[in-house]
Design a protein that fits this description.
The chain is mostly beta strands. Helices cover 14% and strands 43% of the residues. It has 3 helices and 11 strands. The strands form 2 sheets. It has a 6-stranded antiparallel beta sheet with strand order 4-3-6-7-8-10, with no helix packed on it. Strand 1 and strand 2 form a beta hairpin. The chain is globular. The protein starts with a helix and ends with a strand. 15% of the residues are buried.
Length: 169
């Protein structure tokens, strides 16, 4: 009887490894992105080119928890703007910390008004919210132009919004 118990720790380790291996779930769920609008940054040229903004802080307005998404970061070529499952509108401020940008106004805002629907995906992925942006507004203090590329916010890493800045010389 005692001899059989000496194998118990080894059997438990093997069982745990097997359970972990088979509980990894669907590959789609692990690689599917995060279901938030992805904002791409572009220079307004002909044709527009991908760009990066420097010295910016991005934060949410009237959000419950700490809403700073990026704090004085540089080389930002894209960023996520989370939507709330408890509200139908969110607003994000892009504050320009560079003293040479936005001489009159030091910020721009992005505002999303949207609907949401809870849908069951798969047993591995569970339920997910599907968001549809119904209205997208923005200010033009430093942003030259912005466009809503697609109103559907999905779990793929594709740009939902593109913002354009006038290229610096």
């Amino acid at each position: 009887m005692v001899r059989g118990l000496t194998y118990l720790p080894k059997i438990l380790i093997v069982l745990i490894i097997v359970l972990l291996f088979f509980s990894c779930g669907d590959k789609y769920c692990n690689e599917s992105g995060i279901g938030m609008p992805l904002v791409g940054v572009y220079a307004l040229e002909t044709p527009p080119v991908e760009a990066k903004i420097n010295s910016v802080t991005i934060y949410g307005v009237d959000q419950v928890n700490d809403s700073i998404l990026y704090n004085n970061v540089s080389n930002l070529g894209s960023f996520y703007t989370p939507l709330s499952i408890t509200r139908d509108m969110v607003k994000y401020v892009i504050r320009y910390d560079d003293p040479n940008v936005g001489l009159q106004y030091k910020y721009d805002t992005l505002t999303y008004t949207y609907s949401k629907k809870l849908e069951f995906e798969t047993p591995e992925c569970g339920a997910m919210y599907k968001f549809t942006i119904e209205e997208f507004k923005y200010t033009t203090h430093s942003i030259a132009y912005a466009e809503l590329v697609t109103p559907e916010v999905n779990n793929l890493e594709s740009q939902t919004v593109k913002i354009y800045y006038v290229a610096e010389d």
